[in-house]
Amino acid sequence: MSLIVPFLCLFFTFLIFYKGLHTHANYLNARASFMAATVVWGGLIVMSTEVLSLFTALSFWPVLTFWGIAAAGACVIFLLLILKPRPIAYNTALKLSGFEIFLISYIAFIFAATAVIACLSAPNNWDSMTYHLPKVMHWIANHNVSHYPTNITFQLFNSPGAEFAAAHFLILSNTGSAANLVQWLSMAGSVIGVSLVAELLGASRRGQIFASVLTASIPMGILQSTSTQNDYVAAFWLVCFVYFTLLLKDAPKKTVALASGVSLGLAVLVKPTSYFFAFPYLLWCVLKLIKTIRTRAWIPASIIVLLTLSLNIGHYTRNISLYGHPNASKRFIDIQTIKGLPLPLIFSNVVKNMALNMSTPSDAINKTIVKAFNQIHKLLHIDIDDIRSTSHSFPFAIPFTLNEDNTGNLIHFILILLCAVVLIMRHNEPEDLTRYAVSIAAGFILMCCFLKWQPWSSRYHLPLFVLSTPFIAVILNSAKNQKVISAAIVLVLLSALPWVLLNERRPIIGKDSIFVTDRMSQLFISRPELKRPYTGAAAIIQSKGCTNIGLSLPDDDAWEHPFWVLLNRHETKVRTEHVNVKNESAVYSETYPFNNFVPCAVISLRPEEGTGFILNNSRYEKEWEAGPVMVLTLRPTASIQGSGNTNSGSR
Predict the structure, then answer these.
(1) 376 and 314 within one domain
(2) Which domain holds residue 330?
(3) CA distance 194 to 219
(4) Which residues, including other chains, have CB under 8 Å from residue 515's CB and lie 6 or more apart?
(5) Which has the closest alpha carbon to 161: 173, 145, 138?
(6) Strands 618-626, 548-552: parallel, antiparallel or unpaired by DSSP?
(7) Quick one: which of 124, 413, 421, 434 has the most CB atoms within 10 Å?
(8) Per-residue pLDDT tens over the stretch 16-64
(9) Could you report the per-residue pLDDT of 60-78, keeping only the tens digit for each?
């Protein structure tokens, strides 16, 4: 029930904007008010997280108190607005055609189906198991978001924006599935937001609905909306940024610049790729402002830059203090980024990223596409798997999957290409539509110029596909034969159903359906071989009454989150910390409260530790082993510090 309080704050904030905006159509007023309210809400999440963290107060009562005060304040402001006389906005009747009602009903179906999946499913995405959720659990245990010693460095330097929201949801609900709602809400917000962007680009009401339907049916988006990944969260904040930036270029108001700056700051705090995708729109806006308000253009531009930096300063400071870089460790940067801008490698990167969205259900067709791309590279004397442009030396492939790591968006990709051809062939399209399309393409190329190709790069494309739907919708809406367009839209809707019903990790139907599979089996659905050793290790530790548990995990490649779930199923307070840390974060092992941690048992996934090891002058020896998991326990006779079992270490 406590989770309702932040949403009450969002609701009253929405009402404040809805009362304050005066448009000729209340349905437009409602959507614009929603966008403004969510930007304020997102800013409050970041601000409260950073401030509470400073006082080591990121826990239930401080978080609930903050949202209670925020909700009460928003309610009071709304009541004051009601008492103050305002001009009455003219109500435009919203009469929908049968086909429009069908399209909106489909969106409602997608919302309902994905909401059920999000609420009933255990988080089980690979990245979520290794770093998205574990870092949230460490924050909650530490009561702050400061860096800590960890064997999985992604938990530290990766942008934390989505996880800030997940932390609030988990603290207030104490339910793992609540973390899935962050991405689901982002999908819902994006579906609303793209309709407003389409309206600014000249789409009719039908075209705006097209944009929303196309967004709701993006395969990668459907899958991500039920997971604890963060690409849809970045997509939503970028939609907000683009919407307010398009408004700003034609109406340079400080309030709009504030909304644009907060949106960009939130997008960057979720995903660094937002830099690439947002830059073309920001440049377009600034150039337009220089043309219209000349020297005064520096004011809205400065507001955007300062707000972006302000929302990210906490994360930047923590990373710079540890890694000397605001975004990542040097090792990660070397692995992920292209050095220089060699044109052959950029070309290779562009076409390989495009190919990720060409996979089909036919293995034969996919292999033919791969062969064709290999042949193109040979003709140009380029190694398709050149390590200078390919992360981790992954071989080029385009498998067909139904999971959110590397599924493609074939039909949407084809629509983008077709609409781009139409735009090029026409000479009477509005300049804004052309510049909008160029901004999407420029963002994609910028990403390909700096980030190496990876098999899961299609995840990074999600914001681009979401931002492309208003462009597609405007082109489709302007076609002469609307019967053909309507049939094409229905085809898009039907093609999306497998991703709704047959999600590989959270299926609605089939033998592994979320309705018949127990939650623990859902947790390990991607790696069922780990269920027995993980549950066995937790059972051994709980049988000994051990409350201080060390984790000795391989660098950046271990499923940590299941241990948090398994070790905290009972009311006993358990402290879990990483030990034997060998990366940059090892310096935190010497600081309070980590320097007083003496585990009574260590869960190890490092085979070399099977012979035992010494930690803080205490000897740990293997007591149990199954598969890749070992449990090593403290030997009291060899311990100088004494048994860690007497120190609960709760904080």
Answers:
(1) no
(2) 4-335
(3) 17
(4) 120, 508
(5) 145
(6) unpaired
(7) 124
(8) 999 877 655 566 689 999 999 999 999 999 999 999 999 999 999 999 9
(9) 999 999 999 999 999 999 9
